[in-house]
Known about the structure:
Layout: H1 8-20, E1 37-41, H2 43-49, H3 55-60, E2 63-68, E3 76-85, H4 89-101, E4 104-111, H5 117-129, E5 136-141, E6 147-150, E7 153-155, H6 166-170, H7 176-197, E8 207-208, E9 223-226, H8 231-248, E10 271-276, H9 291-298, E11 300-302, E12 305-311, E13 314-317, E14 320-323, E15 326-332, H10 338-343, H11 348-376, H12 383-401, H13 403-430, H14 432-443, H15 452-457, H16 464-477, H17 484-496, H18 502-517, E16 529-533, E17 550-553, H19 560-569, E18 581-583, E19 604-610, H20 615-626, E20 632-637, H21 643-655
Parallel strand pairs: 1-2, 1-3, 3-4, 4-5, 7-20, 9-10, 10-19, 19-20
Antiparallel strand pairs: 5-8, 6-7, 9-18, 11-12, 12-15, 13-14, 16-17
Helix pairs in contact: 4-5, 7-8, 9-13, 11-12, 11-13, 14-16, 16-18, 18-21
Amino acid sequence: MAAAAAGIRERQTVALKRMLNFNVPHVKNSTGEPVWKVLIYDRFGQDIISPLLSVKELRDMGITLHLLLHSDRDPIPDVPAVYFIMPTEENIDRLCQDLRNQLYESYYLNFISAISRSKLEDIANAALAASAVAQVAKVFDQYLNFITLEDDMFILCNQNKELVSYRAINRPDITDTEMETVMDTIVDSLFCFFVTLGLLFDGSPGNILITCWTATLKGAVPIIRCSRGTAAEMVAVKLDKKLRENLRDARNSLFTGDTLGTGQFSFQRPLLVLVDRNIDLATPLHHTWTYQALVHDVLDFHLNRVNLEESSGMENSPAGARPKRKNKKSYDLTPVDKFWQKHKGSPFPEVAESVQQELESYRAQEDEVKRLKSIMGLEGEDEGAISMLSDNTAKLTSAVSSLPELLEKKRLIDLHTNVATAVLEHIKARKLDVYFEYEEKIMSKTTLDKSLLDIISDPDAGTPEDKMRLFLIYYISSQQAPSEADLEQYKKALTDAGCNLNPLQYIKQWKAFAKMASAPASYGNTTAKSMGLLSRVMNTGSQFVMEGVKNLVLKQQNLPVTRILDNLMEMKSNPETDDYRYFDPKMLRGNDSSVPRNKNPFQEAIVFVVGGGNYIEYQNLVDYIKGKPGKHILYGCSELFNATQFIKQLSQLGQK
């Protein structure tokens, strides 16, 4: 059972497709068509499905309608309904109302997380009262309470993410009960993740509750490592307990049969590294230079969809010329998009150049089709024309057959031209290349060629938020905090630049606390190299005039999260990770030790950041594992935020 070898994306998609087919592999009617049905989901279910299955794929599986549970829905009495919802009080009430109103022919109830016995009884009572017991066909726990964004990346939630946010975990006034709730929410999702990660493809994705059935699903039981005295440790203790309890219950266990001792899969078990966001607060604030991370940083990008506002030129009105209304456009950036898959981790100038090359190659193909069409229209009977005609018939036939591919290529070129242009506008307007290069130097302790005060005071360089991010990175990365006099000078410059100082208030407190706990994270000692202006992309026909934008070439350096993973995955001794706690849920007694039983390096690992993650960290792990053939890594986080969203949380914490 190679846990991470088949990506988590594929495993969750398999589980969802099976669920949509009434929890059996394939259901077709007598004509060989899929059975038509409606899908009823809540916002959580919608967020889980939307990055994985397109509307077309849903239709191919017989889903004629997909509707939100709490929307106004008309009865469709001759069609079965597949429900995919969280087992919340509110959702169960609405489901019981649907049963009473007899909206559908039959009900296939799928709960994203495990439903409690008392709520199950509520549904049973409602079904009895509505004489609809026969209509409730199946009830399943699906254990799918997480969102997969990439083959190797997942997040816990998009709805109500403030409940598990960095701010929620680090609020000074949080009560023990509130903290328990936050931890339980995270642990529930991680438990679901490990059940799905171990999904055997001949198994079933859900634990059925009503029909008599034996689960053949086997989860992947990880070895857990975490730092001490952090929220990550609280998650580790609770997850270890939950996995252990499930393994003890031999009849209903969702994990492999060899519950105790070593067992046949033990040498291939994955490593779970639980990391606390507080070990590295600089990376989430860092200006970035790779395509996917830039799109997330500067555009409206969530759940693999980017929303752009495009103004459509000028219009004349009685009051004179003015910009036309802005069109809103949405683009899905998915694994099907080959350009995105190839370039999402590339430095931005490289992306601009690749879009240009794709455009030129498309134009060449288009010109060839036009040329062949004009030749086919040749008139006259001379031999030369006829022989040319026959030569080109085969070529045109080939060109016509590749037309769908050509149109798809054109669609992707247009998409990435629009997205990359929007990113470029931000880079130029805010001098993001300057910020990125300067922050890289700060984080790698390289000599700075310009004073920090100069950049903060420059009215043309960036927004107030950009300046605040830069200063916070400087403050976090400095071994010595600036003197009070210097700090006052910086504060005045930041205030004059229009910055809100609340985030700094919080970081000051955090740094004082972190100093007591341990030294701040170090960021290696390499930095981005500037390659001068981007002459190649600046040819006259280019969409991207990159004048004034530096072509920065990235040098690989491991960020703190990657370094921690490397130490634990390769079983290296390092002061940074030597006292990490070690949990093995398969051991008979819970051992509270930092001494690993297993001395062999791990082939597969999951890094999970408690308190929020980002695409910079994800990309750093992707680059790291490229140099480790045969090894696999998955990156997960309690929420995915960009720097703007993170600064907002720091600001709220700083107000307290």
